[in-house]
Amino acid sequence: MIDGTYRILSIKLNGVFLPVGLLNSNSFSETSEMLDTTTRDNGGWKTSVPTNQSFSIDFDGLIKQTTSVFQIETVLTYNDIRNLKRNRSLIEWKIDSSEDIYVSTGFGHITSLGDSSSIEEFVSFNANIEGYGQIIETTKKVGNPIIIFVQSDNLGTSNDNQFTITTNPSLSYDYLIQTSDGQVISSVNGDYTITFNTLGTHDIYITGTFPSFYYNNASDKEKITKLKNFGFYANAITQVKSFYGCTNMVITSTDLGDFSSVINFTETWRNCSSLTSFPLINTGSATNFTETWDSCSSLTSFPSINTSIATNFTAAWNNCSSLTSFPLLNTSSGIGFTFAWRNCSSLTSFPLINTSSGTNFTQTWVGCSSLTSFPLLNTGSVTNFTETWNGCSSLASFPLINTGSATNFNAAWNNCLSLTSFPLINTSSVTNFTFAWRNCSSLASFALINTGSATNFNYSWKNCSSLTSFPLINTSSGTNFTATWNDCSSLTSFPLINTSSGADFTFAWKNCSSLTSFPLLNTSSATDFTETWDGCSSLVTFPSNFFDNCLAINFTNSFKNTNLSQTSIDNILISINSNGTSNGIFSQTGGSNTPSATGVSAKNSMISRGWTVTTN
After folding, report:
1. N or C: which end of the chain has fewer CB within 10 A?
2. pLDDT at 142 (0 to 100)
3. SS3 598
4. Nearest of 441, 436, 376 to residue 412 by alpha carbon
């Protein structure tokens, strides 16, 4: 049954259907003229056939008071009806019900109009429309429509009373639009801008062939506030950038659409920062989840979607900063995990997903600052661990993962402030340890890992301020030791590592303020010692012959703020001078000791060759 309260008569005025204001009732009747076909063979019974058909609409209501000629109406007033009748206008009408899927439309003339005024009663009117031509019946909602709820006056590229449906130019469309204010637009093949009667909120129903939205962080992306029904949506192979940038949109739909054919979900819901939950849609055909939920910063949980054949998870959940847990998805086909959970700063734990096919973990969990533990993932195929756990500042321990294929550990555990120990992982193929354990300030010891292939130790253990000793790692291939142990302020000793290939030692042991002595390292390839032992305020003993056969001439502040003995100062000056180099810079300050006559002689010899030499 249909409630007559919701059966509304509207008449088009200035190109827009307006409902008749203060309508009490409307009735619709059809008649047919009959042509007599009776013959004497009819046995005394009359027969006839219909010929011309006609219809009429009777309606009545109350007359609304008009207070100003400038008053803007959103309904059809009595004055509007009277003007249409007096002007003998051919009108277009529509009868629509929110409880029925059918819409009747047609044309006609207003042939009669009257009003009634009784004491202490509202003034009422009645009118009649005589039909012109045939009636057109359309369906308001075909099948299961896509329903979106929009706020037309939110920020966007269209006007405040408009909304633009944006489509993917690479796909084919043939769809019908219906709106909650009574508009019907058919045979739409691409983008379409709807103009509403009023500003504010509106429901939009879409039926027909509509494979994908395509907001791509542009157009009226901020005007969508709800996806109320998926309907038949997503029956296509791609959803690339569909809702990208729809920052005000939430999903209230109780159905799941038809995502079964979608292969590519790249940036589909990227920056949908108002989404607090996500439905369990069918993603069984998907191979690409690149940036799919990137920056969905209000998501607190995530469903166990089917990811069994997906190969690319690059930045899939990047910046989902409110996620507190994550499901055990099937990621057995995953190859690319770059940025996958980057800055998921509320995750406290992580599931034991299958990463056996993964090759690249660049910044995968960077910024996951609430993770307190990490599972023993299968990382045997991964070659790149650049910044993988950078900023995981709550991790107190780390598992013995398989890193046998790894070549790059650039900043892998940088800023893991809570790590107190580190396992003996396989690092035999790693060439780059730049920033690897920088700022791991709680590390009290370090394992004797295999660093035989490494060339770059730039900042590797900088500010590991709790380390009291360091293992005799293989550094025979290392060329860059810039700031490698800078700020390791608790180191009391240092091993005799192989530095024969080392070229740059800038800041290498700067501020290692607990070191009292230093071993006789090989500096034959060294080129730069800028501030190398600057701030080693407890350093007293330094070996002789340390710089023999070293052609470096940059020793700027290399021994600034040290506590070197006179013998150590002499050892350094004599060794540098022995190389006969010219035009260098050397600085030594701290403590109260000065060079002996032997040291002064070496110092003067250097100055004679253009050196600038500063000592106590």
Report:
1. N
2. 52
3. helix
4. 436
Q: Structure tokens of 548? A: 């023999």
Determine the length of the chain: 616
Residue 492, by phi and psi: left (phi above 0), alpha (psi -120 to 50) or beta?
alpha
pLDDT of residue 96: 82
- pLDDT of 74 reads 74
Question: What is the spatial distance between Cα 194 and Cα 164, in angstroms, rounded to a whole number?
Answer: 6
Query: How far, in Å, are 107, 156, 216, 223, 489 from residue 594 at the CA level?
Result: 109, 73, 69, 75, 25
Residue 112 neighbours by CB distance under 10 Å:
12
Instruction: Please identify which residue in the block is written with the tokens 């075909």.
Output: 142
Could you tell me if 197 and 16 are in contact, meaning their C-beta atoms sit under 8 angstroms apart? yes
Burial state string for 314-338 with b = 16 or more CB within 10 A and e = fewer than 16: bbbbbbbbbbeebeebbbebbbbbb
Collect the ranges in the chain with pLDDT lower than 70.
1-2, 66-73, 98-102, 139-143
How many helices (DSSP H) and strands (DSSP E) are in the chain? Answer: 3, 18
Strands (E) located in 224-284: 224-229, 250-251
Distance between start and end Cα atoms, the chain: 103
Q: For 403-475, where are the E strands, in sequence order? A: none
CB 286 within 8 A of CB 266: no
Do the beta carbons of residue 402 and residue 377 sit within 8 Å? no
Look up tokens 């996620």; give the residue: 323
Separation between Cα atoms, residue 361 and residue 380, nearest integer Å = 12
Q: At what angle do helices 597-608 and 566-577 cross, to 10 degrees?
A: 30
Give me the phi and psi of 575, to 5 degrees please.
-70, -45
Run of H or E including 94: strand 91-97
Residues 298, 249: Cα–Cα separation, whole Å: 11
Q: Closest Cα partner for 211 from 185, 241, 232, 193? A: 232
Q: What is the DSSP letter of 427?
A: -
Cα–Cα dist 488/414, whole Å:
14
- How far is 544 from 564, CA to CA, in rounded Å? 13
DSSP 572: H
- Given this model, what pLDDT does residue 23 score? 87
CA distances from 282 to 167, 257, 481 (A): 22, 8, 51
Q: What is the pLDDT of residues 71-98, one digit of tens each?
A: 556 788 899 999 999 999 999 999 987 5
Q: Which residues in 96-106 are b (16+ Cβ under 10 Å) and which e?
A: bbeebeebbbb
Instruction: Give how far Cα 10 sits from Cα of 2, 16, 23, 231, 433, Å.
Output: 18, 9, 10, 28, 73
| Angle made by CA atoms 197, 203, 208, in degrees to the nearest 5 | 110
pLDDT at 182: 86
Res 67: pLDDT? 58
Contact 219, 243 (CB under 8 A): no
What are the CA-CA distances from residue 13 to residues 59, 84, 162, 201 (Å)?
17, 9, 18, 22
16-19 vs 48-62, strand pairing mode? unpaired
What's the CA gap between 572 and 568, in Å, rounded? 6
Strand partners of residue 555: 586
b/e per residue, 130-144, with b = 16+ CB within 10 A? ebeeebeebebbbee
Do the beta carbons of residue 102 and residue 22 sit within 8 Å? no
Q: How many Å apart are CA 393 and CA 318, to the nearest integer? A: 18
Task: Name the β-bridge partners of 264.
Answer: 238, 288
The model's pLDDT over 260-282, given as tens digits with 9 standing for 90+, comes to: 999 999 999 999 999 999 999 99
